[in-house]
Amino acid sequence: SRDYSAPVNFISAGLKKSAAEDVSEEDSDEDEKPVKQEEIPKEFVPKKLKTGGNFKPSQKGFVGGTKSFVDFGSWERHTKGIGQKLLQKMGYVPGRGLGKNAQGIINPIEAKQRKGKGAVGAYGSERTSQSLQDFPVVDSEEEAEEEFQKELSQWRKDPNGGKKKPKYSYKTVEELKAKGRISKQLSAPQKELSQVKVIDMTGREQKVYYSYSQISHKHNIPDDSPQQPLGKDSKPQGFALPELEHNLQLLIDITEQEIIQSDRQLQYERDMVVNLTHEIQKMSEVLSHEETAISNLSKVLEMVEECERRMQPSCENPLTLDECAKIFETLQDKYYEEYRMSDRVDLAVAIVYPLMKDYFKSWDPLKDCTYGTEIIAKWKSLLENDDLLSHSGQDLSTDAFHRLMWEIWMPYVRNIVAQWQPRNCGSMVDFLDSWVNVIPVWILDNILDQLIFPKLQKEVESWNPLTDTVPIHSWIHPWLPLMQARLEPLYSPIRNKLANALQKWHPSDSSAKLILQPWKDVFTPGSWEAFMVKNIVPKLGMCLNELIINPHQQHMDAFYWVIDWEGMISVSSLVGLLEKHFFPKWLQVLCSWLSNSPNYEEITKWYLGWKSMFSDQVLAHPSIKDKFNEALDIMNRAVSSSVGGYMQPGARENIAYLTHTERRKDFQYEAMQERREAENMAQRGIGMAASSVPMNFKDLIQTKAEEHNIVFMPVIGKRHEGKQLYTFGRIVIYIDRGVVFVQGEKTWVPTSLQSLIDMAK
After folding, report:
1. More confident position, 152 or 450
2. Which of 255, 335, 419, 440 is most exposed, with minimal Cβ within 10 Å?
3. Which GO BP terms apply (predicted)?
């Protein structure tokens, strides 16, 4: 019989080879047979190297030699190299390993001759003791291969002829569970490998497998061997039972799958228990919340039913508005969520509205304007919808408080306004002032626009400023804080009526000023100025025309009547009146007086007396300054021209001193005003910064020069009476104690800053 315990030749993966390849493989098999040293042909014997040594397989250091490599680098003696010397310089000790810690190998990797012609690994591990020691890392694929070969070798015959007992491997349940988890993760790639067709031709017959895993279940058991008769000393041979083995293996596989499936089911049930535990906790929380909500709603329902019971006419202890407010406060404080979610509008209509009607049934708003404000303010915080306030709307169907005020409180207001007289505005204004922070804004607007304003408009139409003893501002102006711009339509008819009343008015009648003065800040600046220019300024001009200037007997009544309107009309209008109707006559009187050998001391007093009649604001105006400066120039010319005639002693000096003093006052006042204005601008952050505010008169002149693009610079090497000369545009000036002096034809003349700017332009 043939020996089937020989090594496996090959396992083909289904690739069919040609006849030529088969022949070449047979030749290669013959070539792979071990050849003895004596049989090697002479021409293939290794020749002597150029170094003089022989390269023989039996020598030390040959790959396949059995002895250790002791004389490391001994071949160097046949060369001219210095490798051994370099190694020793780097710390190499002969006989020890390479590297810093002598961990490197010095022997070449030994080769191991394979016994038969099987594939790599068919005869077990081919690693030597040296290689295992040098490279201890073992790959997982090699371990699996070793395990497979170990299981496969159980069914091979012993080469010595004896029988070998199979070794069984056992797995615990934990190992099987772990294997099941790993196989579950690697099921996808293994599924692809399981579909490979494998042809096994290692036996007598060709066998076909449909996966590599089926090879592990194949056992090399002798089949179809002739039965030998049993002798006396012979032992019975084993029987091959493939069906039984298949069934047993199937049972084992089924059991393993059941164990793995049971483990997965157990894990799933455990996860389900955890999830259900969390669900139970959540449902318990929801249940407790629902129970709390049910309990709160039950208590709220009891309180509402108690309110309804006490509102019955037959109840001995009827419910009051204050007690009802306390009940709603309790609902809002203790049961806030239920209170906000409930329909407060229906609840208030059913409970609060009847109580509110009974509370205000005997109320007179004009007599007791603060009645009910505190209780209504409390109900506002209880019933008003915050969302409605954020949108500034008026939806009576969603806000209980607005509906309460509109349906219960508003009818009382309509009745009282219908009976109210607009000229008695004090009580109505006080009433609305008391309720302005309590009632909704849109209800207040409705009262002012639909109830109050029509009454005021009708009363203004019937007002006559000539016959009515009560001034109109006394019953219109109290409404300004509440109505503000709503009163604008009333101003036009008021101005028309006042203009008609002023047609026959004379400035001597001071009652017109008393009537018009309260309206100055009410009318817009443009409308007020237009009214003054049209109705007042012409009357004042006529009054100034009638003024007679007589230095010896002056009547000042007409002048006082005009000056008295200074705060009412604008400064420009007043200056225009003076320039047109006063100063021409005044300068003419001055010239005629100076031409008749006057007393210059009286003229000085007369000049100063008239100047004192004007306010600083009027005197600061450039036109008024020019007129008074013109009077000074006339007096200076009169003094200078009277050379041959008689003149009072010291008159010329007095007039010059007067001129110098008055102009200096004007300049100082102007500088002070400019400085004050600059400081105010700096404080408000408008214009120049606080650091650039002029600190003296020179800085002020420089600032004005910069504003008007005028060159202001000192004249080098030029002085007058020790004072530095400056060029201001085309004019030469100098500054002395806050006064600017301009170079004239014969002398230096003081001038104002504005006049200086006009001359420089």
Report:
1. 450
2. 419
3. spliceosomal complex disassembly
The region of weakest confidence among 63-77, 355-369, 572-586 is 63-77
CB 324 within 8 A of CB 355: yes
Helix (H) or strand (E) holding 131: helix 129-134
Return d(Cα 303, Cα 308) in angstroms, integer.
9
Q: How many CB atoms lie within 10 A of CB 103?
A: 9
d(CA 559, CA 42): 158
Contact status, residue 472 vs residue 460, Cβ threshold 8 Å: yes
Q: Which stretches of 578-729 are DSSP H helices?
A: 583-594, 600-612, 616-619, 622-641, 651-683, 697-707
pLDDT tens for each residue of 140-177: 577 777 777 776 666 566 666 555 566 666 778 777 77
* Sign of the CA dihedral with 622 first, then 628, 633, and 636 last: negative
Q: Are 457 and 449 in contact (CB under 8 A)?
A: no
Q: Reply yes or no on whether the pLDDT at 31 is more than 50.
A: no
Give the mean model confidence (pLDDT) for residues 56-80: 51
| CA distance linking residue 474 with residue 15, whole number of Å | 122
| Per-chain mean pLDDT for the chain | 75
Which residues, listed in sequence order, are joined to residue 200 by a DSSP beta bridge?
A: 207
Determine which helix (DSSP H) or strand (DSSP E) holds 724, and give its type and residue range: strand 723-728
The residue assigned the tokens 């015959």 is 157
Write down the pLDDT at residue 308: 77
Q: Which helix (H) or strand (E) holds 732?
A: strand 731-736
Considering only CA atoms, which of 146, 138, 139 is closest in space to residue 120? Answer: 146
Rounded (10°) angle between helices 537-545 and 525-535:
40
pLDDT: which is higher, 86 or 67: 86
Residues 86-96, buried b or exposed e (16+ Cβ, 10 A)?
ebeeeebeeee
What would the DSSP string read from start to end of 609-648?
Answer: HHHHTS-HHHHTSHHHHHHHHHHHHHHHHHHHH-SSS---
Sheet holding 748-751, edge to edge: 712-720, 723-728, 731-736, 739-743, 748-751
Alpha carbons within 13 A on the beta-carbon side of 470: 13
Evaluate whether 566 touches 615 at the Cβ level (below 8 Å).
yes
Assign 151 to helix, strand or coil. helix
- The dihedral region occupied by 236, where left means phi > 0, alpha psi between -120 and 50, and beta the remainder, is beta
User: What average pLDDT does range 285-304 have in this prediction?
Assistant: 87
The C-alpha atoms of residue 52 and residue 76 are separated, in whole angstroms, by 12
Look at residues 592, 581, 661 and name the one whose alpha carbon lies nearest to residue 627.
581
CB-based contacts of 194, cutoff 8 Å, min separation 6: 210, 211, 212, 213
Classify the phi-psi angles of 29: left when phi > 0, otherwise alpha if psi is within -120 to 50, otherwise beta.
alpha
Q: Which of left, alpha, beta for 597 (phi over 0: left; psi -120 to 50: alpha)?
A: left
Spatial separation of the C-alpha atoms in residues 544 and 575, rounded to whole Å: 12
CB 427 within 8 A of CB 369: yes
Cβ neighbours of 514 (radius 10 Å)? 11
Helix (H) or strand (E) holding 731: strand 731-736
**Residues 441-448, mean pLDDT to the nearest whole number:** 91
CA angle in degrees (0–180, nearest 5) for 218-219-221: 140
